[in-house]
Amino acid sequence: MTDRTVLVTGGAQGIGRATVAACLDKGWNAVAMDVDAEALNALDQELDHHGRLLCIEGPNHDEPGVRDAVTRSVETFGGLTGLVNNAGFSRNMPLEELSLEDWSAVIATNLTGGFLCAKHAAPHLRKAKGAIVNLASTRAFMSEADTEAYSASKGGVFGLTHALAASLAPDVRVNAISPGWIATQAWQKPATRQEPELSPEDHGQHWSGRVGAPPDVASMAVYLLSDEAGFITGANMVIDGGMTRKMIYTH
């Protein structure tokens, strides 16, 4: 199925890496865009891709760079059928200490980047009758203290998703995934890769009986990009092992 090509931002580590790997496992072409050159090199060396992987270094919120990444994807593989807006990070600190620079950096990557990638990928996705998957978060709907920038950005991703679904219909389906607690430590570049340290209490906060892992999210992303999800658009898939529905009391 090499007629499918998926661009994944933040594709070198964590959920992005798992999504790139899942796309390759499906026989699709994958484009990993990431700011970490070392992680991209490790991805290229470690994954079995047979020339079906293109790695592009650069931020997702630089418009000329995004435009170039989309163009290179199309020129390399002949088209673009899917986009996964995965790149994101957090800077959690007390509100009074959160600078405008920190706030703007989080919003730029987590929200503006998704807008720019969708904008420049849209003509190709329309032509291919493709799909977009945006990575939101359960933090769009619930919060801990000192998470204003991250929570606001992920709430924005939720809103951006249904707006894009309306604007790009019926040619392009657009959905969001809201992961809960996903342990990504084992999916980092070699220099920082480690097994997560998780307690029975950590796992016990989930009806699934365990904390999530990147493939849990990647499998949903691949499904939403596929023809099997052809009747799903404007939706938000919560993947959290039941954590946000579980009533948790301290005793």
| Fraction of residues in H or I helices | 40-55%
Low-confidence stretches: none
What is the makeup of the main sheet? 7 strands, parallel
pLDDT averaged residue by residue: 96
Report strand %.
Answer: 5-15%
Gap between N and C termini, in Å? 53 Å
Spatial ordering of strands, largest sheet: 3-2-1-4-5-6-7
**Overall form:** globular
- Oligomeric form of this entry? single chain
Looking at CATH, the homologous superfamily is NAD(P)-binding Rossmann-like Domain
How many distinct folded domains?
A: 1
Number of strands: 7
Short summary of the structure?
The protein is of the alpha/beta class and 251 residues long. The chain has helices at 14-25, 37-46, 63-77, 100-128, 148-168, 200-204, 214-225; strands at 5-9, 29-34, 53-57, 82-85, 131-135, 173-179, 236-239. The longest helix has 29 residues, at 100-128.
